[in-house]
Design goal:
This protein is α/β, with parallel strands linked by helices. It has helices spanning about 5-15, 55-65, 75-80, 105-125, 140-160, 185-195, 205-210, 215-220, 250-260, 275-285, and strands at about 40-45, 70, 130, 165-170, 200-205, 225-230, 265. The radius of gyration is 21 Å and the shape is globular.
């Protein structure tokens, strides 16, 4: 039988070994600010932290690996630039989620807005500008596709000339955005194929697509060439992406890295922790595979 001294000695030896949590690819002992972002470029959506001054979010976020603050417009771009960050996904038409390219009623205003924002994004050195399908409002899938193609092609040449990507976000229509049209990856991919430009791609929101269709990793692998950007969020609830929710984000991030993706992954969860910056830091570490 082992003596008490021998047992304590073994316990001390085990305690010195780095412990893997099963949720991260790196031991906590290696999770330092210096090696964050080796394989994943980290961004955060501004609206999730609206109660934190933008300068504070940039200054503090940069300390733990944040490289971008996104879904902001021209007024805020100089602020993130001041702290050596970028805006990985710029605001687009600013007409809301319901009014989008699937409805010709909105095309003229959308064209006007994108003709203004695209050159500004180019001048600022940005790459991606978000766009949205809009709500169905009784429009069937085929008509919605045709309408989107006709509308987007009115600004596509300008986007290509300025090397700006128009990136349509996939959102769920089950919980958060009732009636939204681009709510399945297959519909978004078909739109990409019909437009046929390297400057029109998809924003794959992991939270939204888990709700609508699941099968996240295989979907990412099969459609990698159409995805320019990723958003995160815990399911259910759209909160932290830790052990409180159903998705295994380190596995998803590994799959994204394996596709050769070099863009940004943005945290778009609504923090529940009192210290929202610490919560953001933790979730960036979870994704930093």
């Amino acid at each position: 039988m082992s003596t008490r001294r021998e047992v304590l000695k073994k316990m001390a030896t085990l305690a010195a070994v780095p412990v893997f949590t099963g949720r991260n690819s790196k031991p906590e002992s290696e999770k330092t600010e210096m090696n964050i972002g080796q394989h994943i470029n980290h961004s955060a959506c501004r609206w999730c932290y609206n109660d934190i001054p933008l300068e504070v979010l940039c200054q503090e976020g940069k300390k733990f690996g944040l490289q971008s603050v996104e879904l902001i417009g021209p007024r805020d771009w100089p602020v993130v630039k001041k702290y050596g960050l970028t805006c990985a996904m710029a605001n687009g038409a600013d007409m809301g989620i319901a009014k989008g390219w699937n409805n010709p009623v909105y095309h003229d205003q959308l064209v006007k807005n994108y003709e203004e924002i695209i050159p500004l994004a180019k001048k600022e050195g940005l790459k991606n500008v978000i766009c949205l399908s809009g709500n169905r409002e009784g429009i069937d899938n085929e008509t919605g596709l045709s309408n989107c193609v006709n509308g987007i092609k009115r600004v596509l040449a300008l986007a290509e000339k300025n090397n700006i990507n128009l990136v349509m976000e996939l959102l769920n229509s089950k919980v958060d955005h009732k009636d939204y049209h681009c709510d399945h990856t297959a519909w978004g991919v078909e739109l990409c194929k019909r437009i046929g430009s390297e400057n029109f791609l998809l924003l794959y929101d992991i939270y939204h697509m888990q709700i609508m269709e699941g099968d996240v990793i295989r979907t990412i692998r099969e459609n990698k060439q159409y995805i320019a950007h990723y958003h995160t969020g815990g399911v259910p609830g759209r909160h932290e992406i830790d052990e409180t929710q159903e998705l295994n984000y380190p596995s998803i991030m590994k799959a994204i890295v394996e596709t050769g993706f070099t863009g940004f992954v943005s945290q778009e969860f609504v923090p529940t922790a009192p210290d929202k910056l610490s919560s953001l830091k933790k979730c960036i570490e979870i994704c930093d595979v």
